[in-house]
Design goal:
355 residues; mainly beta; 5-stranded mixed sheet; 8% helix
Length: 355
């Protein structure tokens, strides 16, 4: 019954209209990233950020905006200030530490069905950032590692960060309960903690992983890159308060699964909340190597009805490997996109007509 409903939804919202045919090119405005945006930090040095996977900014009527950027090879996130066309890196906030945080609420998830079991506790594999005043939220991927096929507990955290007035430090709260929401969610729960990529000669897999995050009011929305079923990707929504309630009890709330008809093999790569309570969705391929365009959609909540806004033109030249991974609203009809596999995220502005 659920499967038939999803197929019907996907058919009703087929991506054949003129909006989806529109190819979006970045506007002729150069963005500069000042020195200091960091990626993986080792014992000896920090590497420049080349794996930017998410960005969120606090709103501002005018002047500088406080933002947070995440690199999926880092152990946390980094504040940055966006003013005009310049992004200036700020304080780095360690979220996962060297050992599992004793203050994390909820219970750590078990290994699940990742082929190689438990991996080393190391990077957060931060995939998305959201802002809901006065806090930023950062999530790990909550899945098996794509190449190593192992589960690292450090990737199974959701963090809430409250910056001090000048964003030089933050109070950090962490929880394991987003894992509970994903594991018990209708339709997608069965895919939690399964391998993301097939082995050599194996069958394609659909392990669950998170790559988008938004918080609207008192509700958190986790956007899934996978699984995608019958051309339908998914949001998992859950109230914020139970996620961060004290103690080690499991999540005391029922998650809600919201289908988004984004097209075959197109999962959610990022989310950003609009002022009217709708979501702007960045979509892209569920697995590496698929010829699926990156696109922008407008999603109504709680129905999940989507409106295609266009596809992003691939980058060229030395940045051709760049993959759109993060999106933030700049203003009416304007968005900023950051890219994985491009130094400092290669931020670019796009004009997008949002009905």
């Amino acid at each position: 019954m659920i499967r038939r409903s999803l197929v019907a939804a996907a058919s009703a919202l087929a991506l054949s209209g003129p909006a989806w045919a529109q190819v979006l090119h970045s506007v002729d405005r150069t963005y500069t990233v000042a020195e200091g945006l960091t990626g993986e930090i080792t014992k000896h040095r920090s590497k420049p950020a080349e794996d930017i996977s998410g960005i969120a900014c606090a709103p501002a009527e005018a002047g500088p905006r406080t933002c947070m950027v995440v690199d999926d090879e880092a152990a946390g996130a980094q504040f940055a200030t966006l003013q005009g066309t310049t992004l200036t890196p700020g304080a780095v906030i360690d979220i996962v530490g060297r050992k599992p945080p004793k203050s994390a609420v909820g219970a750590p998830p078990v290994t699940g069905e990742c082929t190689l079991g438990q991996g080393a506790y190391r990077e957060m594999d931060g995939e998305a950032v959201a802002y809901a005043a006065p806090d930023f939220y950062v999530t790990g991927s909550h899945g098996c590692s794509r190449r190593g096929r192992e589960f690292k507990l450090s990737t199974g955290l959701l963090a809430r960060l409250r910056p001090n007035p000048d964003a030089t430090e933050a109070r950090v709260e962490t929880t394991y309960r987003l894992n509970d929401a994903l594991r018990t969610a209708d339709t997608v729960g069965a895919y939690a903690l399964k391998d993301l990529e097939p082995r050599e000669g194996g069958k394609p897999l659909s392990g669950l992983n998170v790559e988008g995050l938004a918080v609207i009011g008192d509700t958190l929305y986790a956007g899934l890159r996978a699984p995608v079923l019958d051309g339908t990707a998914f949001l998992v929504s859950v109230p914020v308060a139970p996620l961060f309630a004290p103690g080690d009890a499991p999540l005391a709330a029922k998650p809600v699964t919201i289908p988004l008809a984004l097209g075959a093999d197109a999962g959610i790569r990022d989310l950003t909340a609009l002022p009217d309570g709708r979501l702007l969705v960045l979509s892209g391929p569920t697995r590496n190597g698929l010829s699926v365009p990156y696109g922008l959609f407008l999603a109504d909540l709680p129905s999940g009805r989507v409106t295609p806004l266009g596809t992003l033109a691939p980058l060229e030249g030395d940045e051709a490997r760049g993959k759109p991974e993060g999106i933030v609203r700049l203003g009416p009809g304007r968005v900023l996109v950051v890219f994985d596999s491009v130094l400092n995220g290669g931020p670019r502005e796009y004009a997008v007509a949002i009905p």
